[in-house]
Design goal:
This protein is an alpha/beta fold. It is built from 14 helices and nine strands. Strand 4 and strand 5 form a beta hairpin.
Length: 309
């Protein structure tokens, strides 16, 4: 069976996450300790105890990177896994790059922390917003955003699955566009509990500054291909990897196309490494012939390894 490993992004975090895996596999806490040494504070203690802190983007991003990478290391330590490719949703793309050897783990922790700081400072608190649009096709969501006549930016930014698209931009514009989406036939248009309007043009200045941080680090071509969010394709060289990471900050996440790209290469199963089951849940909505496992505890580790051997 051909399978791909995928990593979740921001939004899948929760207090106490990874506790079952940590109780059974020492590599989990080791991975968090490595991140803590880089960050200068106890990341494991934070994710286990501090609900407010874990949802602050400067903490969420390194925490989710550590969680996804730790889960991958659990699988790798238990079996000689050989995925056909990897991918990650938004922040998860960085986890994938670490897993394939394109980027050192400590460098990635620093990079996503810088990414979070730039994203948070790009738009004043209360000015930006994101909303999930359910029940409209991609083209209609893009069309409604393009026809928005109010003030401010509103753009389609996460193409997550058939009938599930996230929009982002200035808060007032996003709220007004939600009404337009409902008028166009959306089943629901729900504001998300975030203050940073990720992956839209309001992040353009942050992306320009972020490029300096990306270019200061050493990247390598990985042992396994990573399908990038920006264009749902694998980079051909190191400069492309860097360019796609910078573009991802202010361009849409093409997750639907990413999953279809994996399927088109012959992948039959997706294995989500990291907290939650968001990506596994989206998989069947994108491609019914694909199965998906979420690796979140000891039993799911055992079940997944049995199925892919």
């Amino acid at each position: 069976m051909q399978y791909a490993i995928i990593f979740p992004g921001q939004g899948s975090q929760s207090v106490g996450m990874m506790s079952d895996l940590a109780d059974n596999f020492p590599i989990v806490k080791d991975t968090f300790t490595e991140a803590s040494d880089t960050l200068g504070f106890d990341l494991w203690k934070l994710v286990q105890n501090d609900k407010e802190a874990i949802n602050q983007t400067q903490n969420t991003q390194p925490a989710m990177l550590a969680a996804g990478y730790a889960t991958y290391r659990v699988l790798k330590g238990e079996s000689d896994i050989s995925p056909a490719c990897m991918a990650g949703h938004s922040l998860g793309e960085y986890t994938a790059l670490v897993a394939v050897g394109s980027l050192d783990y400590s460098d990635a922790i620093q990079l996503v922390t810088k990414r979070a700081q730039l994203m948070q400072s790009a738009v004043p608190k209360g000015v930006g917003a994101m909303a999930a649009i359910l029940g409209l096709d991609d083209a209609t969501v893009v069309k409604v955003c393009g026809e928005f006549v109010g003030e401010g930016v509103v753009e389609a930014v996460n193409f997550n699955a058939t009938g599930q698209v996230v929009i982002a931009g200035n808060k007032n514009a996003v709220e007004s566009a939600c009404d337009d989406m409902k008028a166009a036939g959306a089943k629901r248009a729900v504001l998300l509990p975030v203050s940073v309007p990720s992956h839209c043009s309001l992040m353009s200045d942050a992306a320009e500054e972020f490029s300096g941080a990306v270019n200061s680090l050493e990247f390598r071509m990985g042992d396994i291909g990573v399908i990038h969010n920006f264009d749902a394709s694998i980079a051909n060289n190191i400069n492309e990897i860097k360019s796609k990471l910078v573009s991802q900050l202010h361009k849409p996440v093409l997750w639907t196309d990413t999953v279809k790209s994996m399927h088109n290469t012959g992948v039959e199963k997706l294995i989500e490494c990291g907290p939650g089951k968001v990506l596994a849940g989206l998989t069947r909505r994108i491609e019914k012939s694909l199965s998906a496992n979420a690796v979140i505890d000891l039993s799911s580790v055992t079940k997944t390894l049995e199925e892919i051997q």
